[in-house]
What does this fold into?
Amino acid sequence: MKLSRLARLTIILAFILGVMGCTGQPISTTTSDIQEKSVKGYEDLIVGFSQLGAESEWRVANTNSIKETAEQLGVELCFFDAQQKQENQVEAIRKLIVQRVDVIGISPIVETGWDEVFQEAKDAGIPIILVDRRADVPEDLYVSYLGSDFLEEGRNAARIMADLMNGQANIVELVGTIGSAPANDRYLGFREILKEYPDMRILASESGDFTRARGKEVMEGFLKKYGNRITAVYSHNDDMSLGAIQAIEEYGLKPGVDIKIVSVDAARGAFEAMIAGKLNATVECNPLLGPQFFELALKVVNGEPYPRWVPSIEGIFFPDNALEILPTRKY
Ligand code: AHR
It folds into this structure.
């Protein structure tokens, strides 16, 4: 049988990954090691992580938290950045299965399309932990979810907006990545509360893909179409809010004054904008998940009890004390 060049390369890669750890060190586990070390410590753990990309200030902080915590604890981390592509995340999981890591963490870029590859991990006996974003898969295909309640974030954004606007607004919405859990839930949660306010209307809603550049572009389009009929912006993350602020200023209006803005994440950039009077509130979404992730991973691997959902503890921030709080922010 003649194998194609790609097939030969895949076999060689699978072999190399199978015998070497992420750091390039040979995996030297023997039967007696396994018997002696039935309870693992952090320094025995080999953890795979599939990150979705680096689209925002939030995501960069999340990646740093995972990498720094692994280093502090002495965990061997096999980290893959999917650069916003689901197919890269699927490929990363397959590589991690070949590498026989102890556990796989993943922040799924979108909610759907994971069943097959998660099943492959399950068949290989490798537990999956969802980090930051949920995946729409049967419950038995992952062991736990660590992250925020995105629905509640959307509800809180609407409550703040209603307060800020005295129940009357023409809103434009900057939506996150289409099909992602935070975009889906922040969209739904916001509308759930808005039902109670008949004079708060959504004029338009479009994806800015969680990036500053797209947030600016989409806001420019909204301003072109609706001009100063817009009285409020609901943005699914701070990066898009910062892009929208720029677009509003270039249009000749005052962000935070002529057009009120409610955002999500509570990143440093949002605090700076609040201090400058250009942003009216930000609902926190905590990216610093490294310590909780590895604690959870160790429990899973050692067969200790762990929760199905580890919710993040999060607040809401306003301009009045942003200056005081900024120095305490870690992202
Ligand atoms: O999944 C969390 C979201 O993803 C954050 O709100 C956003 O900034 C990021 O890109």
Summary: Residues 55-56, 58-59, 132-133, 182, 210, 237, 264-265, 285 surround alpha-L-arabinofuranose (CB under 6 Å). Confidence is low (pLDDT under 50) at residues 26-35. The first strand starts at residue 46 and ends at 51. The chain has two domains: 5-23+41-148+287-313, 150-285.
